[in-house]
Amino acid sequence: MNADSGTVRHSASPNGLLTSDTLTDPSLSGDVVLDIGLVTFLDSSGLAVFLTVHKKLDAVGRKLVIFSPTRTARRLFQITELTEFLSIEPPERTQGRPPDLDGVGG
Fold first, then answer.
1. DSSP state of 82
2. What pTM was computed for the model?
3. How far is CA 76 from the centre of its chain?
């Protein structure tokens, strides 16, 4: 993810920032909250990055939480039916703050 330009694409993450072994290290615990509120561009390869991270985290009993997606990003998640796999938290559900991870999914 290139936070400076607000894009999420696989090519924008040449070092595998979001899919790195560090992020999905099985020795770590807890869920990963990714605030994408400032993301202005999200393409299919960016969606693939989220899905890959989700699968890796799920395999070790953790969860990827997508927080604060824009209306356009939420629509894209719905159209692609990724809402069936990804945990997506709009800011209005948490008064604009990232979710309390102890309460996510419960």
1. G
2. 0.69
3. 13
Task: Annotate 20-46 with DSSP letters as a single string.
Answer: -TTTT-TT--S-EEEE-TT--EE-HHH
Q: Are 58 and 92 in contact (CB under 8 A)?
A: no
Tens of pLDDT, residue by residue over 19-51, are: 556 677 777 788 888 899 888 889 998 898 899
* Separation CA 13–CA 20 (nearest Å): 10
**Total domains, the chain:** 1
Place of tokens 């605030």: 35
Residue 62's domain comprises 7-94
Instruction: Report whether 2 contacts 10 (CB < 8 A).
Output: no
Say which CATH number the domain at 18 has: 3.30.750.24
Q: Cα–Cα distance between 74 and 89 in angstroms, integer?
A: 10
